[in-house]
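Components:
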Amino acid sequence: MEKTKKSPKSRMWMGSVGAFTLAGILVGGVAVANAGPNNDGRQADEIIAGVAKVDPQTGDKVAVDTQKQVIKDLGDKGKLTKSGSTKPLFEISVNKVTKASSCKVRGFGNTVKPKNGTFLIVDVTATLNKSANKEVNASEAWMPLDASVFGTSSGIGKKANFNLATEEAFGCELAKPLEFAVAAGDTVKGQVMLDSSVTKGQLVYDPERTGGWTWAF
Amino acid sequence: MKTLKKKGLVSAAIAASLFTGICSVPANAMVAPSSATVTPESVVQVATEANIPITSKKHPNNAANAPKSKYIKTVKTTKTTSNLNLRKSASTSSKSLGVMKKGTSVTLTGKKSGKWVQLKWGSKTGWASSSYLKTSTSTQDKSARWMAGYTDIYASRSTNNRIGAVNFRTKVQLLDSKSGWSHIKTGYYHGWVKHNVKTSQPAVQYRWAPSDHNYYSSQKSTKAIGKVKKGTKYEWRRWDSKLRRDEVKINGKWVWTGPNSTKAPAPTQYRWAKSDQNYYASKTSNKAIGKLKKNQKYEWRNWDSKLRRDELKVNGKWVWAGPTNTKAPAPPLPSTVNVKDYGRFAERNITLREKPTSSSRSLGTVRLEDKITVTHKAGNWVKVKYGSKTGYVPASDLKANGAYSFAVYGTLRTGQSAIYMMNGYQQKVKNQRIDDHNLYRLSNKNVTFLVPQNNKTTVAEQFQYVGTTGKKKMVALDKYESTLKYKGKPMYNRHLVTMTDGSKSWSYLASKDVQQLAKSTGKPIKDGDFLKRS
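Structure:
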C-alpha cells in the first residue's frame, strides 16, 4: 500500500455539472486515462480523470482500484470537491456493515430471508453541501442513498454487483432507516439494507456506475 | 273545622261523580276523597246505616274507621356500630366466631349476661357487647294490593250487604284476609271483597271499537257525547254485562260505549280486479250491475269457495264478483337506460337481482365492500357487472368510496415482487387506472412514485378488504409505506384517489418534496405502467 503524501498544489477534479442531479457530476466526471492495474487490484499511480491525486482538504494521497473506485477504510469519508476548492460538496462514509440472515417486514411483522444470500445492514453518513444547488440546473441538488446505488464485490479491483436492492431488503424493518436521498444542505445518517451474495469484501457506493468509493467490510 | 271538612268532602264527591259517571247508581252514590296511600278510583254504591252516609266518619265502613292492617308491622332491627367480634361466650377472652362488619344486621335471642347479649349472625350464634349494637324500630308495610277487576265490596264476609265496588287496577290497602275474603280499605271506605286482590298492579287492558260507534257519560245514558271510529284502541276497565256496555277511556275521561272487541281488528283486506270483470248484487245473481276496473284495488271481506265469488266494496256497497287477485299487481318495471360505466362499492351485502325490482329472482349476493361496475340505470336501480355476473341492485346500496379499498401500483401489483403484501383481500380488481396521476422513478428502478398530474393515468389494481382485516391491512401498509423518509418526512402518504371509473380507493402518494424531485429529475413511467423486471 502506497503511503499518501500531502500536496498543497493537488487539485480535486470537478466534473461537468449534471443536468438534473449532482449524481450527474459524478457520472460525467469519471474517465480513466493511462490506467493500468497493479497486482493487488489497485490502479497504478496514474492520473485518472475525475479522481484527484490527493485529497484537497487533507493532502492525503487518493488510492483508486481498477474498477475506478476510490479506496476507503470503514469510517473514512469519500468526498466530491469542486475544482479549486478544498471544501467538499458531497461526503459519504460507510461506518459499519452488519450481516443478518433474516429480517422482519415493517408493518407486517413477518420474517423474510434474503434473496441473494445475506442481508447487509450498512451504516451510512452522508452530507450534501448547500452550495451544491449552484452546480445543478434543477431547483435542488440531491444524491441518492437507496439500496440501488450500493454494490458489493469480493475484493479490491473486483467487479461489483449492484443488484442488491431486492424487495426483501426494501421491506426490512431497520432501527434507523437511512433517508432515500440526501438533499443540499442536509446531513443524513442511518441504515440501508442490502441483499448480497458476498459476505466479505468491498462495499461500493456508485450511483451511476461510472466510479465512486469502496470500503472494505 | 269538622264542618268545613265535611263540606269539602261532599262538593268534591259531587264533582267527581259527574266525571266518573256514577249517576247511574242509586241517588246516594258518592265518590269519597282520595287518601295518601290509596288511589281514588273506587266507585261507591253506599248502603246507609241508620241513615248515616258512608261519607260520614260515623259510618262504620268509612275509611276513617278501618282497623289497622295486619300487613303493617313494626319491626326492630339491631345492627353493629363498629367491626365487632362474635364471641363463643360472654367474655372478651372467649373464642371469636368471626368479625361482624360495622352495619351488620343481627338477631337478638333475648339472652343477656351483664352488658353482653346473645345474638344470631347468619348461621352462627354467639355473644357480643351491647355497647356496640344499636336497635332501631321501623314500619314494614306489606299491605299494598291492586284490584284485578271491577269488584263488589261488602260490609262483612257475606254478600248480603253490598256497600259499593272498586274498579280494575285500583290500589287498595289489605287489612286482613280470611277464608277467601279480603278485607280492604279504599280511599273512601273499608269492606270485604272476594277474589281479585293482587300484590302487583295488573297490566292495562285495551279494547277496540268494532265499528264507528257512540260513547256516553254513563252506562245507562242514551245521549251520546261523542263518536269513535272503527278500530279505535282505548284503555278499558269494566264490562257491564246487564247493560252490555264497556267503560273505556276516551280523551282522558272514563266513558261508556257499546260492546267492544277484545282483540285488535284484523286489518282491512283488499283485492285487485283481474280484468274489467262484472260484479253482482248477490253471490248467486247472474245479472251484472257494473264492472270492476282491471288492477283497481277494492276492499274485500268474503270469499265463497263454492260459487267462486269475492265480496267486494264498490262505491260504498258490498257486491260480488268472480275471483280477484290477492296481491297488488306488480308496478311496471323501470326502463333500463345505458350509462357510461362507472365503479362503485357495496355499502352492505346486496342481493343481485335479475330485474330491477325486489321481487325479482336472486342471482347471488354482492358482498359488503366489493367493487362492481355500473353499466345501466333503471329508476332507483342500477344494472351492474359483478365478476362474471350481471344483474340489478338498488343504487342506494352503493357508495363511491371503499372503506378498505387500496389502489396499488408498482411492485404491489399481481406478478410483481411485493404482491404477497396484499394477501388477505376479499376482492381484487385488475386493470384499473388512477385518474390524474402519473408514475415516476428516480435512481432505483424498482421504487416508483405516484404524483398528481392532470390528464395522466396510472395502472393500478384495487384490493378490497373488510372489517378487522381491513383495519389491520391499513395499519400495516401505513407503516410499511411511511417509514422511508426524505428530508425528514415520509416519502409516501396515504390519500384517497379517484379512479378513471369514478370509484375511490386509498393509495400512497409521494410526499410533496419527493413529487418535486420526481417531476424535476425523475423519469416518468410510460402510460403509468410498471415494467416487469427480468
